[in-house]
SET domain-containing protein
Amino acid sequence: MAFEVRIFPNSKGKSLYATSHIPMGTLILEEDPIVYCQFSWNALCKYKACDNCLRPLETAEENVRRLMGNPLFELPYPDCCQTDKNNSTSCDLCGNEYCSENCKISAFNQYHKVLCLQSRERNNSHPIELLEEAWKNMHYPPETSSIFLIVRLLANIVQASNTDEAIQKVLSFCHKSVNEEAQLAHKFLGDKFIHQISLLREMVANILPNPQISQFLTPEGFQSLLALIGTNAQGVGSSPFSAWRQNVEKLNLSSKDREKINNIVDTIYDDMYAHTGDFLNSEGVALYLKQSCINHSCDPNAEIKFLHNNSRLFLVALKDIQPDEEILISYLGECEINRSRHSRRKLLMENYIFACECSKCLEEIDQLDVTSEEDMSTEEDN
Ligand SMILES: C[S@@+](CC[C@H](N)C(=O)[O-])C[C@H]1O[C@@H](n2cnc3c(N)ncnc32)[C@H](O)[C@@H]1O
């Protein structure tokens, strides 16, 4: 391992540091989440993915047919599709779908034993269905989080053979003061839904009325779970069509065939955007133990990737990293990172409740507090 977690007593808290030279392009770490779940609307809109790891459950052809609204479309190079439906399986009782027997067993052993609906029939008065409905009504797309990450996290504790150890694992994520958490919970649900937090708390308690998790179901405990999700959850996405496209790019094709396939791909994207809009991936959120120790920089030296088209996370060096140098990723998206200092800090404060102290923000400290043009147009749209 070329890194270690260092803990600072100040606001910097846990941080990841290189322990030896890490050349650009090196895979620094890979890890599976301790908990993952798909967004509710995303699942409802038939983005079929493994309930445990987000691996696509539909073929690339089925995927583009659905997203293009064209059930007869034939996708060339079918061998480039990675989806292996032969391995797919489902829970015998509730029908939840998994990419493999391993994922089904892993889900059952970690959280599904206590969360299984026990029936394939929809029961609108089941506490899980009630929470699903309430959450969907509070949190419309574009989705940024899921209450079910909290539910699965708590179910993990309930099912754990060592409850104290499982609780300590969850507590290792929390680093916020009560005041900061209140602000974060506020942002997490949107201004007009702040009063709904106690309703969500009651609904979660109805699903898991277990004494082992009572400390997380008090108003303060629940608030800190919301803060935990808000500050540490990592968005994940998968797409059978993207995986197919990457495999097609690796094919050794004549320039004529390459041009032909490039044109087909362009047309597919145009049709998908026209029929479905911007959201083409299966999407969800996950919590990672090591990744959650990585601080943000507006000039990062590493990036997060999902190379297996599921929730397994890879940290890759964007630059040469020297021993004792901090490993930093960007919490902002590709477009956001290029905005002005003022805009970047505004986004980080709104979404993660921290005033960025990265080297780039410190270097640009004399910049006027100007808002990027993109932000101004978004504000106008809002
Ligand atoms: C995912 S955690 C990263 C690990 C964190 N240092 C810890 O102790 O758990 C995200 C939190 O780290 C802190 N943080 C990360 N990057 C920062 C930065 N550039 N400036 C100030 N605080 C930062 C913020 O408190 C943020 O909410």
Remarks:
- The chain has three domains: 1-32+288-330, 36-234, 339-382.
- Residues 63 and 345 are 37 Å apart (CA to CA).
- Strands lie at 3-7, 14-18, 27-31, 35-38, 89-90, 97-98, 234-238, 282-287, 302-305, 313-317.
- The longest strand covers residues 282-287.
